[in-house]
Amino acid sequence: MVRTPAEDESRQKLLAGNPPQHGTIHSDDDEGCQETTATLQSEDSFSFCGASVFLPKATRQRTLAYLGAVALVAVFVSAVAVVYARRGAISGFGPASETLARNYYQATHDVPYNHQLPLDTILVGSSRTRSSSSLVTDSAAGATAFSCGVKTYNGAIGVFPDGRPCGTVLEAAKAIGYHTGLVATSRITHATPASFASHVSSRGDE
């Protein structure tokens, strides 16, 4: 900040009549910068906008302690934010999320029930329990999936979705000479055991 000789003389008279007290700061602002003049007990100082600011030793120590505490809190908060950001990048996905995405895609794009997403092609050992007609299978379609290895509609007993009979695991075993049988605690014609030994288009025909 540049002053004319007249301004300097006026300022010196003002300071002579009202000298700064110990531990205080006198400042003049000009274009956003602060020029500070003070007579203090300590000669410790720092510069601000090209001017010297003098602080007593105790004040300087408190200031440094405050700045240190603020810096420590800032480091801690940033570290926590980084940790949570990394966790958020790798968590929250699994078979349930993929199943939801698959079902949504099939419903909105009018594709077959057995349509696969790109990620499905790299899965190993997963199982899709839906039937060909519903997101939730029933015991007839579920047992047919076990006995024939095909997905069919709810209510189907040992038949394909088009109603044709499908070969069961018991029929395959019998065809190569094994003796087969069914043991059930329910009726043998109930949907689950029946799907291993019969072929009916509707479980309601029991």
Automatic annotation (TrEMBL):
It comes from the Eukaryota. GO terms for cellular component: fungal-type vacuole membrane. The keyword Ribonucleoprotein does not apply. GO terms for molecular function: alkaline phosphatase activity; metal ion binding. It is an enzyme of class 3 (hydrolase). Mg(2+) binds at residues 190, 192. Gene3D superfamilies: Alkaline Phosphatase, subunit A. The active site is at residue 139. InterPro entries: Alkaline_phosphatase (IPR001952), Alkaline_phosphatase_AS (IPR018299), Alkaline_phosphatase_core_sf (IPR017850). Its cofactor is Zn(2+); Mg(2+). Residues 1-32 are annotated as: Disordered. Belongs to the alkaline phosphatase family. PANTHER family: ALKALINE PHOSPHATASE. This is alkaline phosphatase.
